Amino acid sequence: MTQSPTASSSEPKAHGHFLDSMQLPSGVTRIWLIRHAIVEATARLRVYGALDVDLCSEHLALQVPYYTALGQRLPADAQWVVSPLKRAQDTAKAIFAAGYGTRNLTIEPRFTEQSMGEWHNLPHEELPLKLRQTAHNFWSLSASEQPPGGESMLDVCARVGHALDELADRSEGQDSVVVSHGGAIRAAISHALSVHPDTALRFSIQNLSLSILERINGVWRVVTVNELPASVSQS
User: Fold this and answer.
1) What is the CB neighbour count within 10 angstroms for residue 38?
2) pLDDT at 29
3) What pTM was computed for the model?
4) 3-state SS string over 185-218?
5) Which of 48, 120, 232, 233 is deepest in the core (most CB within 10 A)?
6) 44: number of Cβ within 10 Å
7) Residue 79: in which H helix or E strand, if any?
């Protein structure tokens, strides 16, 4: 497995922590966020949110080159963190099986997807009838809308932000891979940029995409968002 290139820690650090080369410097607290693979077809017809649904077996079989390319992009010595939902854990295991090699998985509930509460399992066409606020242009509901028995994106941003900060505290100067969900990754970006969730929801986070965050001197920055595996971008 080819490790993602990083610059030698002995190289001089540029003022401002500029990224002036093709390599990411080592010794930086860096979080590699991956959205899970596409879920099975019947689940995609309904609002599945934080429900535990399976990945699409057909896509899993066809997309092995994507998992291989993704694994080659990731650092070999990273710790791995996953949401408690099976689709995130199965995505991590597919990356392992495609050449990265098996690693221990730490389950972190705060990286799970937004809970839609009583709106779980609704057909997508019925959800607009339940909303009390105007839906976001690029999400099923506005950031402040809280489904009955569920959570708003404001809630998601709070829990994801706490999880990110704690992960960075525990793994200072190290790499961590987090396999999570589209809403949770947008929440992570919201936290890193200190922007309102409605703004972060404008980011596209596709299945199997990679987003990279760094925390330097206590300040988060965004390195990349929604980067697709090389095999996808070249196809």
Assistant:
1) 19
2) 98
3) 0.91
4) HHHHHHHHHCCCHHHHCCCCCCCCCEEEEEEECC
5) 48
6) 12
7) strand 79-82
Q: What is the full DSSP assignment across 47-75? A: --TTS--PBPHHHHHHTHHHHHHHHHHS-
pLDDT at 85 over 60: yes
Q: Report DSSP letters for 103-149, one per residue.
A: --EEE-GGGSPPP-GGGTT-BGGGGGGT-SSPPPTTSSS-TT---TT
Quick: pLDDT tens for 195-204.
999 999 999 9
Instruction: For residues 14 and 107, give the distance between their C-alpha atoms in angstroms, rounded to a whole number.
Output: 36
State how far the Cα of 6 lies from the Cα of 215, in Å rounded to an integer: 16
Q: For residue 152, give every residue at least 6 positions away whose Cβ sits within 8 Å of its Cβ, in sequence order, or none.
A: 114, 143, 144, 145, 146
CB-based contact 51:196 (threshold 8 Å): no
Task: Specify the amino acid at residue 172.
Answer: E
Walk me through the domains of the chain, giving residue ranges and CATH numbers: 27-233 (3.40.50.1240)
Q: What is the per-residue pLDDT for 2?
A: 46
Tokens of 179: 């396999």
Q: What local confidence, expressed as pLDDT, does residue 1 receive?
A: 45
* Strand 105-107 relative to strand 175-180, pairing: unpaired
The torsion angles phi and psi of 61, rounded to 5 degrees, stand at -70, -40
